[in-house]
Amino acid sequence: MRILVIGGNRFVGKALAKKIVWEYRYNFVDVFNRSGTGPWGTNIIQGDRNNRKDLDKIDWDKYDTIVDMCLFKIEQFELIKNHIPIHTNYIFVSSGAVDYIDTNSFGDYAVEKMDIEKALLKSSLNYKIIRPSYIVGMGNHRPRLGYYISQLKNNEPITIDGDGNYPINLVFAKDVVDCLIKLIVDDKRTYETYNICSDESITINSLIEFLKQELDIENHEIINTVDSLFPNQSFEFDNTKIKDDYNVNFTDLKQGIIKYIGEYNEL
Fold first, then answer.
1. Which terminus of the chain has fewer CB atoms gathered within 10 Å of its CB, N or C?
2. DSSP one-letter string for 191-204
3. pTM
4. Are 172 and 198 in contact (CB under 8 A)?
5. What is the full DSSP assignment across 13-59?
6. What are the tens digits of pLDDT across the range 41-90?
7. DSSP string over 64-100
């Protein structure tokens, strides 16, 4: 199987490329990104997806599957849509923010992701879409759990947008990778959109209290302000469809958080 990961040099994209090569032993995994970096065993194609000449470096016809980790604007999709063969299994990483587009909590980000989804719907591509909730895990350039742990351990105040009682879904990077691999090996035309999230919700306040319990910390200080990590609004999803279609098991929320704390402390 020949796979192209657009992105693949940070967080989930990097973890995906690494797992494909190291655990599944696929020999043909190309990674396209601006930095020209990627896991050992992948073939690196350095380029900017906003540059037509760089996109011409890619031999689009040779891939069985393309996983697009960093598609944010409709203009970027317009640049590649005619390059992707209609039989190629194309997986677009969208966002759970699309489900909450009417709340304006996620601004242009949600609107632009929705525009791309609509364009895919009108295309002839063999596409699948995932909508992850808040992704957490080591290596995240927006370390949501890491922020709370750091603030608690250093006795620093925690910023919260609102009262902290709104429920949210987290999803661990490992689970996002596992879902993507399920979609990679399934090349059937499904045109499906899947929510990717943990089985249970948690409020911001409950999350902080659980972290305090595991870190053996008694008190914390709150500053109420606009918080870009978790906007003041519920963010819940139903993951039943991906579980039923691909027999996916998601990490237990509390066990995943405990594991994250251990990895954080090791670093």
1. C
2. --EEEE--SS-EEH
3. 0.96
4. yes
5. HHHHHHHHHHTS--SEEEEEESS----TTSEEEE--TT-HHHHTTS-
6. 899 999 999 999 999 999 999 999 999 999 999 999 999 999 999 999 99
7. SEEEES----HHHHHHHTTTS-TTSEEEEE--GGGGG
pLDDT band at 26 (very low <50, low <70, confident <90, very high): low
- Chain mean position to CA 198: 13
Please tell me the total number of residues recorded for the chain in this structure.
267
The residues pairing with 172 across neighbouring beta strands, listed in sequence order, are 136
Tell the residue number behind the tokens 């237990």, with chain if given: 252
DSSP 3-state percent helix, strand, coil across the chain (nearest 5): 40, 20, 40
Q: Which of 146, 74, 64 is nearest to 115 (CA)?
A: 74
Residue type, 47: G
Single-letter amino acid, residue 62 = K
Strands of 118-211 (E only): list them. 126-132, 134-136, 158-160, 167-168, 170-172, 193-196, 202-203
Contact 214, 172 (CB under 8 A): no
Other beta carbons within 10 Å of 219: 7
* pLDDT computed for residue 27 by the predictor: 67
pLDDT tens per residue across span 91-122: 999 999 999 999 988 999 999 999 999 999 99
Q: What are the contacts of 82-88 at 24+ separation with CB within 8 A?
A: 83/55, 83/58, 84/60, 84/125, 85/60, 85/61, 86/124, 86/125, 86/126, 87/126, 88/60, 88/63, 88/64, 88/125, 88/126
Q: Give the mean pLDDT of 248-261.
A: 97
